What we know:
71% helix
Amino acid sequence: MSTTTAPADHTAGDTAVPTAPPTGAARLAWAVADGWTVTRRDVTHWLRRPGALVAGLLFPILMVLIFGYLFGGGMTVPGGGDYREFMIPGMFAMTMVFGLGETVTAVVNDTSRGVTDRFRSMPMASSAVVVGRCAADMLKSAVTLAVLVGSGLLVGWQWHGGAGPTLAALGLLLLLRFALVWVGIYLGLLVKGDSVVTTVQTMEFPLGFLSNAFVATATMPVWLGAVADWNPMSSTVAAARELFGNPGWGGESWIAQNAVLMAVVWPLLITAVFAPLCVHRFRHLED
């Protein structure tokens, strides 16, 4: 694997000691090139092991079939409407959340095998590893979302708005995933051991199910419904339903009535917190 190296200062004995480029534009180009190298490395690993990729795609498809056909007949949507159209946007968001465990696992595996330490010893931008990991996970998430959209269409789901609102809904789903990728990278750099990874993966379930993904929060106890409404995933689900023109969006609380706004604000806040933490943690892994 090759990486883009920064210009080098020459010292005694003609030993090249890499240093960062002197200008901001050059530093940015250096970081982008190194980040793309790491992204290609991760994507290449997936292509060499297609079985794991296919298995990861089959799980959300199976969930769509289970909730759409086994549970769908017994569920009602407040205000009326088809339950499959209510459920599918929630399944889209659920899959974005469940990708958190995959990110944590990938980062922990690289750290335990010494790959991360090797990256840190190379003359490359310190942000390249975390940025490359994020880009690779987003590519995989986009493919997963495309497969889910196809699965949803097969079970009877459809969008009722134009191309603009539909693309905006898909963009908000990927924006949520983008924010959670940074959370996953940070946790992967922070924790050690498979037991901790299992704990993180287990926590995906309350985060995903304590939301409006599969049932309306109005059907929950008041205090639990309030917690679910303020779950960032609920804002993304409600915004996606609104933009897709699917039933079940809206609500009486402020957070529910401003779902599209909060579906942008929540991921941006999460990213603003965890992206710098990821870079800082990568630089101080041995501390």
